[in-house]
Amino acid sequence: MKYVLLICDDETSSPSPAEIAADPAHRAYAAEVDRRGARRGGARLRPVADATTVRVRDGETLVSDGPFAETKDVIGGIDIIECADLDEAIELAARHPYARHGSIEVRPVWE
Fold this sequence. Notes:
The chain is α+β, with helices and mostly antiparallel strands. The chain has 3 helices and 6 strands. Helices cover 26% and strands 39% of the residues. It has a 4-stranded antiparallel sheet, covered by helices on one side. It has a two-stranded antiparallel sheet with strand order 3-4.
């Protein structure tokens, strides 16, 4: 079954892509996901300041800069994994470095 891991953290301490690539904890997580053959995709997201929110109300398209919600923790990226079951997805989510100071939301994908 496929799952999306929503990687949430406080953007005030967001490491650069180079820092993440050099971090032993991130490398170990990526190696474990690859060892299991679970990686199906993923992406790191730009900061919420770069977001555009789109709503349609009464047929009118409303566009605003920034995130929809004013929260401390934001979705900074996603991983798409394929696992045997939710227990395995939770196990991988717990290995993600951001689980130690942010949170990882695990969601099954409709298929």
